[in-house]
Amino acid sequence: MATWQDVCELAGRLPDARLGEAHEGSPAWYAGRHQFTRLRWDDDGRELLQVWTGDMNAGPELAARPDVFPYVQAFQYRITCWCYLDRLDLRETAELMLDSYGIRGGARRRAAVAPDDFLPR
User: What is the DSSP string of 72-89?
Assistant: First the structure.
């Protein structure tokens, strides 16, 4: 099970990542001017992690797991999803974050991170 603290520890290891606030005040991590991960809550107070992906084929796969990904929205060039942190392990959380960091922070930032060094074993 992952927590927002795990997200912060992982995000803090990414180049140029900084903790800030989303427009309504929730905590969010930024790569440049774009959020790449954000904390949300469902109606029962469960923590949700919002991330983005550029893999346009991922939408149906994510939507097929509504117990983990209750919200999946496809746009023209990316997909955003909300995922229950208490349903993700640390590795899947890190994979989602790294993908989101690349799509929102740009290819140059993403290229600066070696997955083997970033992803938990």
Answer: EEE-SS-EEEEEEGGG--
12 burial level (CB within 10 Å; 0-12, 13-18, 19+): exposed
Q: Which amino acid is at 23?
A: H
Q: Exposed, middle or buried, 44 (CB in 10 Å: 0-12/13-18/19+)? A: exposed
CA distances from 22 to 39, 55, 64, 66 (A): 9, 24, 28, 24
pLDDT digits (tens, 9 = 90+) for 63-112: 999 999 999 998 888 899 999 999 999 999 999 999 999 999 998 999 99
pLDDT tens by residue, 9-56: 999 999 999 999 999 999 999 999 999 999 999 999 999 999 999 898
Tell me the two tokens of residue 94. 């890190």
